[in-house]
Amino acid sequence: MSTKYDIVVIGGGPAGYVAAIRAGQLGFKTACVDQWLNRDGSHAFGGTCLNAGCIPSKALLESSELYERTKHEAETHGIGVGEVTLDVAKMLERKDGIAKQLTGGVQALFKANKVDGIAGTGTITAKDTVKVTPVTDDGEEQELKAKHIIIASGSTPVELPMAKFDGDKIVDSWGALEFDEVPKRLGVIGAGVIGVELGSVWSRLGSETVLIEAMPDFLPIADAAIAKDAARQFKKQGLDIRLGAKVSKAEVKGDEVVVEYEAKDKTETLTFDKLIVAVGRRPETAKLLDGVDVKLSDRGFVEVDADYKTSVDGIYAVGDVIGGMMLAHKGEEEGVACVEKIHGEKVEVNYETIPSVIYTMPEVAWVGKTEQQCKDEGLDVNIGSFPFAANGRAKAMEQAIGQVKMIADAKTDRILGVHMVGPYVSELVAEMVVAMEFGGTAEDICLIMHAHPTLSEAVHEAAFSVHGRAIHAMNKKR
C-alpha cells in the first residue's frame, strides 16, 4: 500500500522541516522523512542544526563565555564570586536540554500544520515515489507517492583520509560537543567558522588549543581587516592559530593523537589529547537516489535551476545539498521559496544579502561584499569604520573591542557590504541586511536615529565615517 501526498520532503533539518511546515500552511498534504538518530538511538527532527550543530554549539559557547567572564571579569565589576568551578556534565546536560526542547517544538509544529513526520531514510525510486526504510525499532518500511518531492538531505562533515574519525580521539564537529571532560591539549584541523567556534569553547574551559589551517590567510571568507582584528583578539585569548599548515598525518598512539603537518617547508609534530577535524561539509546524498537520474555536480551537490528544480520533473532540492553558503537560515529561506514556487507564487531569495556569523567572543558578522571583492570587481567605493573602543555601551559591558566597517558605492552611496567584529554583532548585522534589502545608502543610516547608549551606535558612526564625518572618533582618509 502506498500513501499519497502532494509534497514529500526528504530531510528534517532547517531547510526540510521549514519547507514541510510552509507546505502544510499552504494546504498541501505533506510528509517529512528524516533519518537523524541521536547517540542514544532516538529519532529527532531538526537535523544537524538543532541536534548537533547550530543550537548545541551556541549553548556551549554561551556557557563557556559565561565561565570565562566570571573567572576574569567579575572582580572588575566589583563582584566577588570566590572560587569558580566547572561542571562539564551539567553544561552538556543543559546543552542537550535546549536541543531537546527545540526538536520537540518541530514535532509540535508538524502536528499543528498537519504534516506527517516520518522517521526513516528516504530513497527516491521514481520521480513520484519515495521508499522509507525505518531507522528505529518501531518503524516499518513504507512507500510514499508524491506529486512533488523536495530533497533537503543536508550535509555531513568531511573526513580526511589521514585523520579518520574514531569517535573518541579524532572526532567531527558533533563529537566535539560531547567531550565529558576538558582535554588538556586540543588540536583542531581547520580554522574556519566551525573550527574557530569549537576551539573557542574548549579553550575558554581550559584546553591548550591549537588551530591548524592549510590556508595562508585567517578567515579568508571574511573581510581582511575584520579577519585580522578577529585573529588578534583570539590570539590574546590563548588560541594558537597556525596558518599555511597542511596536515600530512594524524595517528592515535595510546591516549594521545600525534599530528604531523607541513609549514614553510618544515615538518612539525604536535601531540594532543583530542583532535577535532573541521575542514568543511559535503552534501548528504547516500541512499538518496535509486534508479532516478537526478543530476549531481562533480562535488556531489544536487544541481538545480532558479526555481530549485532538479533535472527530473517534479523533484526539487534546497539547503546544504545544493551547495552555496551552508547556513541554516539560507536553507530555511530556500525551503519556503521552493514550496511557494510550487504553489504558483513569484518569490526570490536574495543571495547578495545573506548574513554570516561566527559566534565567538568577540563575534564576527558580515553581509554583502568585502573590500577585496569590490576591488576585484572594479567598484569605486567609500569605506568607513568605527571602533567599539569608542562606544559607551561596549565599555560599560567590558567588551570594547573590535569594529564596524561599512562599504558604500562612491557614486550612489548604496551600501555594498558591512563587516563587524565585536560584542553581539550577530544581532547588529540584521539592521544592515534590512537596509541592503531596501537598497539603503550610508546616508540613510546616518539619518536614522539610534538609541544612546547602545552597540548599534557603532553602526551609525560607521555610516558617518563613510563620508568622513564620524562624531565620536577620528576620521581617516582612505
Structure description:
The chain has 478 residues and is of the alpha/beta class. The protein folds into three domains: 2-156 and 282-349, 3-Layer(bba) Sandwich (FAD/NAD(P)-binding domain); 170-279, FAD/NAD(P)-binding domain, CATH 3.50.50; 353-466, 2-Layer Sandwich (Enolase-like, domain 1), CATH 3.30.390. 30% of the residues lie in helices and 26% in strands. It has helices spanning 14-25, 47-52, 54-72, 88-112, 193-204, 224-236, 328-342, 371-376, 392-396, 425-437, 442-447, 457-466, and strands at 2-10, 30-34, 115-119, 121-126, 129-133, 142-151, 155-157, 170-171, 185-189, 208-212, 240-242, 246-253, 256-263, 266-272, 274-277, 281-283, 315-317, 356-358, 363-368, 381-387, 403-409, 415-422. The strands form five sheets. Strands 1, 2, 3, 4, 5, 6 and 17 form a seven-stranded mixed sheet that branches. The chain has a five-stranded parallel sheet with strand order 8-15-9-10-11. Strands 18-19-22-21-20 form a five-stranded antiparallel sheet, sandwiched between helices. The protein starts with a strand and ends in a 12-residue tail after the last helix.
Write the layout of secondary structure elements.
Layout: E1 2-10, H1 14-25, E2 30-34, H2 47-52, H3 54-72, H4 88-112, E3 115-119, E4 121-126, E5 129-133, E6 142-151, E7 155-157, E8 170-171, E9 185-189, H5 193-204, E10 208-212, H6 224-236, E11 240-242, E12 246-253, E13 256-263, E14 266-272, E15 274-277, E16 281-283, E17 315-317, H7 328-342, E18 356-358, E19 363-368, H8 371-376, E20 381-387, H9 392-396, E21 403-409, E22 415-422, H10 425-437, H11 442-447, H12 457-466
Parallel strand pairs: 1-2, 1-6, 2-3, 6-17, 8-15, 9-10, 9-15, 10-11
Antiparallel strand pairs: 4-5, 5-6, 7-16, 12-13, 13-14, 18-19, 19-22, 20-21, 21-22
Helix pairs in contact: 1-7, 3-4, 3-5
